[in-house]
Amino acid sequence: MVLCIVAAVVFGVMSIFSAKYRPWAREGFRCAFNMLTFRKCDVHLEERMRAHITSHLMTRSERLASAVYHNFKLFSWAFTIVFFASTIYTGISVYNIAVHGTCDPVNGQCIFVPPDGTNATVEQSKTCVQADAPAAAPAYFDTKAKVMFFYRDGCIWCEKEKQVLELLAKDGYMVKPMHLGVHPEFWDQYGIQVTPTFIGPDGKKVIGYLEYMPLRSLLDSYK
Amino acid sequence: MEEIRKDFPVLQKKYDGKPLIYFDNACMTLRPVQVINAIIRYYEEFPACGERSKHRLGAKVTEEVDAARRTMKDFLGAKNEREIIFTKNTTEGINLVAHSLGLKAGDVVLTTDREHNSNLLPWQQLAKIGVRHEIIKSKADGTFDLEAFEKRMDKSVKLVSMVHTSNLDGYTTPAEKIIKAAHDWGALTLLDAAQSVPHKDVNVSKLGVDFLACSGHKMMGPSGTGVLYGKYDLLEKMNPFLVGGGTVSDSTYSTASFEKPPEKFEAGLQDYAGIMGLAEAARYLSKIGKANIEKHEIELNKIVSNGLSKINGISMIGPTDPALRSGIISFNVGKAGSHEVALMLDKNYNIAVRSGAHCVHSWFNAHGLKGSVRASLYAYNTKEECAVFLDAMQKLVKVLVR
Q1: Cβ A47–B402 below 8 Å, yes or no?
Q2: Which of A130-144, B117-131, B183-197 has the lowest mean pLDDT?
Q3: How far apart are CA B329 and CA B311, in angstroms?
Q4: Which CATH number fits domain A136-220: 3.50.50.60, 3.40.30.10, 3.40.50.280, 3.30.390.50?
């Protein structure tokens, strides 16, 4: 029965692009509606899908068709769990990309960005060079500054924030560098969850990338 | 018998490169080109009103409808063509009797336990006004329990309305004995002959039945056509079911003078093309010979039933002797859903069968079954098709049954 909900969602999306999936989507919605309203399902969607898939497999291998037919419940549950898990994971990742610029703001890993040849790796290597060269400390860092700037290597939005800080440095605005890669204890010590994060002298925490004006206003408020 | 296949356009077509094997004849039969042409002829040559219009086209329609009525009278063995009422289908015929016979509270209507919804629901509806609907249960072997029936008969039974050949498993009830027993107690009889008239010689005069309903679409005729036979003296006494144009000879603002049967029961403009197609179907079946059709179907049924009985995992419904099951083979495959089997037969082998409860939900519910696969044969089916069907079933069972 739960397959109806998956079918409704999957075929619903597919039917946007192809009309041939629309009857299946309609049946999926009807089946899901019946299920959610505790009515007897008269659509036989699962039965029809099982017959359709088994028929298709029968033309290739009767053994495979038999295995799929008799374990269809198991397959459909596995498919359902994978479907919902991947949907949730994708949703979180999309949210993180929108807010933090990376799928995984904690570890800097992103399933959408392969480990080599993409901008994430380029950014990471770039920040690594910067991290290995403390002598060339940027102009916007001042260890005595009031506002702490928590950042780490491999964080795209941290790099963007640094570009904003560079502009602000020309007007004399500085932040206290809090490198989470060098000082991993800062994560727990300051309760940091994502980067970039700013913490003012009053303990007020501002999370996420800030554009020029908002960041300038923040720094102004502690002058 | 195989000669007739060329008359059926659908059998000449190929679907996904293969011919169709049509085993869903209990639901709907294919139509020969003669029937199709009869329908076209009406629309091309005289597409006018019968009876009402006196011009040449109208006169031709009246003449053709009268001829069709005579054809159906001969086809059913009635004595008088005025005993033939054209209906939409068997369902309408049964409903006409149920609503026009004047049954009242306390009257008993007897049916079997394997009635199509069309011969069940009308009596359930009449139960609301106090008519008692009682059921004669079949014996364990699926045959009609004549002893129980005769035991139940008394003066309170006013109508025995029974299926002649069951669409569930093809079993034919001993109609003559039932009718005789009913008449002995003064009860009227109605036969749901939707599955018998197309497949075997049914003669209302020999049977002595009071009413008989059948459909055109199950006898190579057009959809939406049917016939209700009724003894003329009974029809005369009955009130019309539907009223309106064609049922009256005259009317005032407050009264109406009804026509005699059958016009009294044929309200509104009739499906003239359908009626002509139906008569052509009756002529076509008569030409082949009902006895030949019955013999052919039983021969094929034996091949299919014997073949299926050798496949482990298939359970048959109804009497074991194929000769008792007309051209119908109703079965289940292990625990597989009947729709699954039907879909797979269609998808992989181009074999059309019916699945589900076949409008006999009451029987399936009483027996704890969800439905069955039903292969139903007809005059144009062949032994080769049966062999392909059996081969397909063997392959399906390998996949569906562990």
Answers
A1: no
A2: A130-144
A3: 14
A4: 3.40.30.10
Residues of chain A contacting residue B348, judged by C-beta atoms under 8 Å apart = 55, 58-59
Give the ipTM. Answer: 0.82
As to burial, measured by CB atoms within 10 angstroms (0-12 exposed, 13-18 middle, 19+ buried), residue B201 is middle
DSSP B9-45: HHHH-EETTEE-EE-BTTT-----HHHHHHHHHHHHH
Q: Where are the alpha helices (DSSP H) in A62-116?
A: 62-70, 72-100
On the question of a cis peptide bond just before residue A105, with omega within 30 degrees of 0, the verdict is no
Rg (CA), chain B: 22
Q: Is B359 part of the annotated catalytic residue set?
A: yes
Of B337, B339, B344, the CB nearest to A55: B344
User: Which pLDDT belongs to residue A33?
Assistant: 84
Decide which of B54 and B308 is more confident. Answer: B308
H or E segment and range at residue B338: helix B338-349
Confidence of residue B12 (pLDDT cuts 50, 70, 90): very high
- CA A65 – CA A60 distance, rounded (Å): 8
Domains of chain B, earliest start first: 2-24+289-400 (3.90.1150.10), 46-287 (3.40.640.10)
Q: Is B19 at the interface with chain A, CB within 8 A?
A: no
| Residues contacting B332, CB < 8 A, separation 6+ | B314, B315, B317, B338, B369, B372, B373
Using CA atoms, how far apart are residues A180 and A193, in angstroms rounded to an integer?
11
Nearest CA in chain B to A49: B340
Q: Which residues of A touch B347 (CB under 8 A)?
A: 51-52, 55-56
Residue A26 has pLDDT above 60, yes or no: yes
Write down the pTM of the prediction.
0.79
